[in-house]
Amino acid sequence: MTNVFISLPTSDLERAKAFYGALGCEFRPDFSDENGTCFAWDDNVFLMLITREFFATFTDKPIVDPHTAVQVSINFSRDSREDVDAMVAKGVAAGGTEPQPAQDYGFMYMRDLNDPDGNALGFLYSVPEDARQDADAQPATQNAGV
Fold this sequence. Notes:
Strand content: 25-35%
CATH superfamily of the largest domain: 2,3-Dihydroxybiphenyl 1,2-Dioxygenase, domain 1
Order of helices and strands: EHEEEHEHEEEHH
Low-confidence stretches: 137-146
CATH topology of the largest domain: 2,3-Dihydroxybiphenyl 1,2-Dioxygenase, domain 1
Radius of gyration: 18 Å
Strand order of the largest sheet: 1-4-3-2
Number of domains: 2
Distance between the termini: 36 Å
Number of strands: 8
Structural class: alpha/beta
CATH class of the largest domain: Alpha Beta
Number of helices: 5
Shape: globular
Helix content: 25-40%
């Protein structure tokens, strides 16, 4: 089993904690101190929110300002379109911003969310393969709303 730890710099640790808590992430005090905090996204994915100053001690490279540059976009799959919409609504209510309208490709529905520090998150729902095959087998007039 592999655990994934995603480290994100923050300029305001308390604000970041409030934001990720509002998304429903589980606070992990065992991996938290005054320099950073940990939230469990699920059993194997953890978000490490680290002060920009402490984050800079891990690298000789410059730390980008996520309000002006994207270094990485972290995307999470959800179980439905409604769940995607609910996650973005929670994030916006907690101080995040939605940088662009929803993207609907028929087989995949995506929405982006920037946390208050500007770090890019994405939420997506992909129609299961067997449902896509069933839809493909239907006449085009029945597929129009997919």
